[in-house]
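ok posting inputs for the iron/sulfur cluster job
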Amino acid sequence: MSDCCAPAKNAVILACSGGSNVGQITNEAAKALDQLGQGRFFCGIGIGAGLPKFIETARNATCVAIDGCEVACMRKALENAGLAPDVHAVVTDLGIEKGYHFDLEADQVAEVAGTVAAALEELGTGPAGECGCGG
Ligand code: SF4
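and the output
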């Protein structure tokens, strides 16, 4: 394990980024959270691919998984790597209906980002470092 990504309070934000409105809302919410300094938007697909550096970075961080729907691909990718999210948000659980279109609404993105930010605040976490050791 590299010391550069070890602080327990770093947050990595993982989005399912799926091919639907709710999947893309996860992507937009993750970008917004990163830009607001709530954590580092991290390449969740690297964890899904089983790449060791990505998994190690997630293991040493506060993991936020944002899934578009109850299929929960991002959470399951973490679980397949032996990890579990510290914060897990599902867009459809917030009452946003899944559809195979990309007409995203800003208030939907804001609701998801706000839900995650509130959960992070409860945990008392901050943004991840900029070591770049895991992607
Ligand atoms: S969690 Fe749902 S929206 Fe996201 S990638 Fe999986 S099936 Fe698609």
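notes: The domain at 3-127 is CATH 3.40.50 (Rossmann fold). The chain has a mean pLDDT of 89.
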